[in-house]
Amino acid sequence: MNRALSPGGLLTRRWADPGAITMLLMPDGVPSCLIRAFSEERHLQSFLSGDVLIRRLDAFRSIEDLSRRDGAEGEARLVVPGEAGVDVYYGGSFHNPVYLLCCSDPGVDTIVDTMTTNLGAWWATISDPEGLLSALSLAAATAAPAREVIDTLLLQVRYTKASKISATPDSEERYRLMLAQKPQHFAAEREWRYAVVLSGAVPDSVPELWLRVEDMKRYSCPRPPA
User: Fold this and answer.
1) How crowded is the C-beta side of 195, counted as CA atoms within 13 Å?
2) CA pair distance 144, 128, nearest whole angstrom
3) Is the predicted pLDDT of residue 95 greater than 70, yes or no?
4) Is the pLDDT of residue 112 over 80?
5) Which of 2, 38, 59, 78 has the most CB atoms less than 10 A away?
6) Cβ partners under 8 Å of residue 130, min gap 6
7) How far is 193 from 55, CA to CA, in rounded Å?
8) Three-state SS string across the chain, please?
9) pLDDT greater than 60 at residue 19
10) pTM of this prediction?
């Protein structure tokens, strides 16, 4: 069964049906490539060799760099209009373990200094975002054999956290916001993220997973900042 979420640059593969893939695109579509930045060259080389580290979503609530920390990561937060003009504050969060690989679209090239400072000076180009999604889906099933891979997704982050919108989001939009919503002040990062959703509860899940992607050169190559 494929999950059909609202438009916004989404690719999703349901592991139970690995032969099918659904694409729902924004007017501009999914970028033809994405950028993954690293703080150290050894991390870049590890990624390019096919060893991909994905971290559980809650780790991003407590990262050391306060300028990049989102204490409400993984929580959907919106203000929606209620009855008699009274605003309703909506919130939602996941109970399953979710693991992220965070990237940016090529537009970060326009603000290289800021991105190098915030995200890291060592960059890889993901030249086949859809192909890497498929590879991550397969690798996640191998890395977490005791759990079902419920979803693997490629999502464009929405910078609407705690913002007021005109209507209550539907269930599919709420699902996506719990996975990929951040406050407006992060918008310069132009983030896209791969998300792997596993079965089971968060407390007994590991904080990170190493995924082995064979033949990574099919999907990615080194790219020094301009």
Assistant:
1) 29
2) 24
3) yes
4) no
5) 78
6) 11, 21, 23, 30, 154
7) 12
8) CCCCCCCCCEEEECCCCCCCCEEECCCCCCCCCEEEEECCHHHHHHHHCCEEEEEEHHHHHCCCCCCCCCCCCCEEEEEEECHHHCEEEEEEECCCCEEEEEEECHHHHHHHHHHHHHHCCEEEEECCHHHHHHHHHHHHHHHCCCCCEEEEEEEECECCCCEECCCCCCHHHHHHHHHCECCHHHHHHCEEEEEEEECCCCCCCCCEEEEECCCHHHCEEECCCC
9) no
10) 0.82
User: What is the residue whose two structure tokens read 């080194």?
Assistant: 222
User: Token digits for 186?
Assistant: 């992060």
Sequence-separated (6 or more) residues with CB below 8 Å from residue 13? 2, 20, 21, 133, 134, 137, 151, 152
Q: Which residue has the higher pLDDT, 174 or 100?
A: 100
29: left (phi over 0), alpha (psi -120 to 50) or beta: left
